[in-house]
Amino acid sequence: MLKRLAVLFAVLALVAAACGGDSGDDTTTSTTAAPDTGQGTEGGTLATVQARGTLKCGVSGSAPGFSEVAPDGSFSGIDVDTCRAVAAAVLGDGNAVEFRTLTAAERFAALDSGEIDVLIRNTTWTQTRDTDLTNDFTATTFYDGQQIMGNPATLAGLTVEGGFADIDGAVVCTNAGTTTEQNIKEGAEQAGVTIQLKTVENFPEAMDGFIAGTCDIVTTDGSGLYGHRSANIAAGTPGAEDWVIFPEAPISKEPLGPVVRENDSEWFDVVQWTVFALFSAEELGVTQANVDSMMDSGGEIGRLLGGEGEIQTAMGLSADAFANSIKAVGNYGEVYERNLGPLNLERAGTYNEQWYNGGLIYSPPFR
Ligand SMILES: N[C@@H](CCC(=O)N[C@@H](CS)C(=O)NCC(=O)O)C(=O)O
């Protein structure tokens, strides 16, 4: 489906709804003072994480393919793997992570207060979140877009060609503190349709309402809708295979990726270049299985993995920091396939492909 997203994003790029901060999206207030993180400023978080020996990573915990908690308490997902890659780069151990599950409304305050070191919770990069709040966005690990899901058994005639006209008068449910609630409100207003927007704390509650029939429609990032629909089909929820996800052209751009506290440039670099290392590893053919045998390659692969000319020690990391990340989770393509492949979030032909395959996944050079 993301093939369709990619094509339609191109059309929508200029008209996509802006994710303005006009609602309960932002749980921390704007400030011009340095954030009270207890971390100091420059370099604070890297030293803190190294001294502690674990990384505190803020995730959702109920976002299929991004961050989920299994009954045994183990975490998985593309966001979870990004946490592990950072921990492996900084601490040499991809398991040295304390996950904190956060609602959308809680997440920025948790980062600002120092409760977490990095926020990797399917979080959309927007202007207000970046510039009004005490956040810095490092890189985009998944290009998403908001869609809507309905049940044709309740809303007769609903098809994937559907649009705002089909939700006139509907009870629309989503989770609070998101771009989602802003986009749907603004989109409905602009389309001249009236909706009854019901926001809940966690998106799974919106899904419960949808299944119970108290919500006519649910809306969130397309990946979330596909993920929840797949999970419900697998769980045998009656009628789930008929649920319709529309419009084919997402109603917004939702670039998702890791967020750090602002003005901590050293830590920002560590998180950002860990993501770039996963991107570059895929480009250079370095995988979880072959990383050890590639260590002695010269050139860019050598520099990436800690060989001659390596640049990681100058960042305050070990020379083999990124080799450790790749050993822990694999390259970006492997991370994508492991977590999003099972949800049928097809990568080919989408923005989540590598740049040399027509996508937007692009790492600057390791030089
Ligand atoms: N990307 C949007 C939406 C994020 C969001 O909350 N997405 C849902 C989609 S699955 C989610 O994470 N739900 C899990 C939860 O509420 O814990 C944002 O940054 O505001």
Tell me how many strands there are. Answer: 15
Number of helices: 13
Topology order in helix (H) and strand (E) letters: HHEEEEHEHEHEEEEHEHEHEEEHHHHH
Percent of residues in helices comes to 25-40%
What would the average pLDDT be, to the nearest integer?
A: 90
Which blocks of ≥5 consecutive residues have pLDDT under 50?
1-43
Instruction: Report the CATH topology name of the largest domain.
Output: D-Maltodextrin-Binding Protein, domain 2
CATH superfamily caption of the largest domain: Periplasmic binding protein-like II
- CATH architecture assignment name of the largest domain: 3-Layer(aba) Sandwich
Instruction: Note the beta-strand portion.
Output: 5-15%
Radius of gyration: 20 Å
Domain tally: 2
Major sheet details: 5 strands, mixed
Ligands: glutathione
- The coarse silhouette is elongated
Look at the structure and give the CATH class of the largest domain. Alpha Beta
Q: What is the spatial order of strands in the main beta sheet?
A: 11-10-12-9-13
What is the SS-derived class? alpha/beta
Terminal-residue CA separation: 36 Å
Topology of this protein?
Elements: H1 2-12, H2 44-52, E1 55-59, E2 62-63, E3 67-69, E4 75-76, H3 78-91, E5 97-101, H4 107-112, E6 118-119, H5 127-131, E7 135-137, E8 142-144, E9 146-150, E10 171-175, H6 179-191, E11 196-200, H7 203-212, E12 217-221, H8 222-234, E13 244-246, E14 254-256, E15 259-261, H9 265-284, H10 291-294, H11 299-305, H12 321-329, H13 332-340
Parallel strand pairs: 1-5, 1-6, 10-11, 10-12
Antiparallel strand pairs: 2-3, 3-4, 7-15, 8-14, 9-12, 9-13
Helix pairs in contact: 3-9, 3-12
Bound molecules: glutathione (GSH).
Glutathione (GSH) binds next to β2, α6, β12 and β14.
